[in-house]
Amino acid sequence: MSALAANLVDITKNFGPTRALDHVSLKAFEGEVHAIIGGNGSGKSTLAKIISGVLQPDSGQVSIFGKTATTPAESKELGISNVYQEVLVADECSVLDNLFLGSDGLFETAEPLDERRIRSKQILYDLLGFELDPDSIVGDLPLSLKQWITIARGMLTNPRLLILDESSAALDYEATERLFAKMQSLTRDGCAIFIVTHRIAELVRIADRATVLRDGKSVGTLEKAQITEDKIMQLIAGPERQRVEANRGHARQLEDRPVLRTHDLQVWQNTSFFDFNLHPGEIVGVTGLDGQGQADFVKVLAGVQQPVNGWISVVQNGIAEQIIDMQAARKAGISYISGDRKKDGVLPNMSIFENMVMSIYPVQSVAGFLRFIKRSKLKPIFEHETAQLATKMGDSGNLIGSLSGGNQQKILIARSFAENPSVLVLNDPARGIDVGAKLDLYRNLREFAAKGNAVVFLSSEIEEFTDLCSRVLVFRGGIISSEFTPPFDTHVILNATFGRGAEKLAPRDHATNVSNLDDWRPAKNGERPAAKLVRVRPNLPRRLVMNQSGFMLLSPEIKQGDVIPSRYTETHKMSPPLEWESVPKGTQSLALSITDPDVPQEFNFSRSFAHWLVYNIPADAGGLVEGASMTAKMPSGSQELNSDFVTFNIPGFGRGYGGPWPPNGSHRYVFTLFALKLKSVDLPQDADFVAFSQAILPVTIEQASFTAIYGPANAALPAA
Question: What CATH code would you report for 4-242?
């Protein structure tokens, strides 16, 4: 028997009147993977946070390698590393910055930059299977790569005990396999791993033991030979709710005429055109290895993202409406659900009730243009939709952050059903919800499609398609590479994601039974009002300044990707004018950073160089005027920190703005505005960019950013 790594005895934790954990006990040993599994709200993440020292139990004992940690710092000293369920990254910083974010104290000596680069490249290659530039700006990367960065951050510390809380939720099959391989490598070296997951098929393969929670209580710990899907389902559901086989059954097409059609579609540049038809009654599954274009495809269908080429139409009342943006999509009856609830869905400063019903305010309000919200009309809708998904919650007036991540996702799903759409576009909606909730979702989707509606369902969990979909599309290289119909063979579909095996491609024009295809084309001028057909701009920047919500940061003098005017650089210590729009609801204050991620290696500096750090900007400030730094022009209450010129003892610099002054070549300068849920943040006057990020990021509602360039400099930096 291996040495005991963690011993938890009679752990109890309450949050107000809610008992999250009720006398939970478990043991974990060095060199094993111990799974913690249960339904949404069962206490899994709470237990993980107690093991990591983030939370303290109300009663009971926690022993990690024979010691008790009462703070995250003490946990770190014991060799505990935690990868959280939420993808916590600093979008404006580089990959390297993010990997080592929080590893240095205010006065600690940083690990040499060269060593950090070597270690970073190695672990990223191990996890990704390819090299990722450590100087890449994280905000430009897809969600899955951001997830990898958080995982790599947790593994870089060479932990003795690693906690992975839903860390595979954003990963596809291939990526999950690489994660498992790395986990096995760690356990061979004696590391103990706790994995919190809803993906039962995964833990059946990887877990050495599994503890199942239900309603905050431990209902059993299974040994390796006992870990089966049926056994886990029995423990999770309890005697009152077993897996219902009646939920099974493929959706089927009800009509030949499509409800949605694309023509000459391109979601990536320099790829083949393709067509796609969606018919009433269908549930079309979409899958592929991460980054093969499937996510872009579903976003294009929902108007979230514009295509590179082509058009999308939806028929309503016999009239074809072109989808050019989200507003047009919603008007045409398309509802979109994202699996990235933090970025694309949840409004953290609003209640559970408000988060669910907000999208139906316009159709359920009274008194005409005055738009009075009548809660009595909304309450039955709220209760029905949340009950359909068995959402576990307390008072509906509580902030949505009081719910577990999975229950937050249920609220977003319920919101879409409440909109009464005709087409649902789902972008990995089951990420983070438990097996029972998935069954409820699938049942609802079958009922929805059976009424003559249609669904497009993206998921990396191929097994989901085998019991649900009318057909499955596999994406490779930005196009539909394969198409499958029931009965599905998951191994064949999986092989297709890797480009292996025979392809069952649908005809290019799926609408062969449509009598008049011309009525699907956008209306010509003079026939009827219609949105203009747009051949979408082919050279859109990879990083836009505006978020989906409309939150935008800009400068009247500095454009995205342009050169920063010289009056804001080098010896000119004049801060540039900045403006922002559509500050998220619930914002209590704002913070601002201007950073340079391109610090030369010879500087041996382990992070981005901070040129301006500002916090406690009033929420109602609409911008900063030119030359505001360290003057009375700054909005009342705003606080400025030292630039990193002070860190390097460059004479003539102190607190406030220090303009671009690259010592070599041309550098990028990332301007980022943070909308915060706190009215004020407390930081010492000598705080640096690391301390700034540690204080700002956990309370950030949303970020807006743009990047400009400058260099080479006209003069050398003054000698320190």
Answer: 3.40.50.300
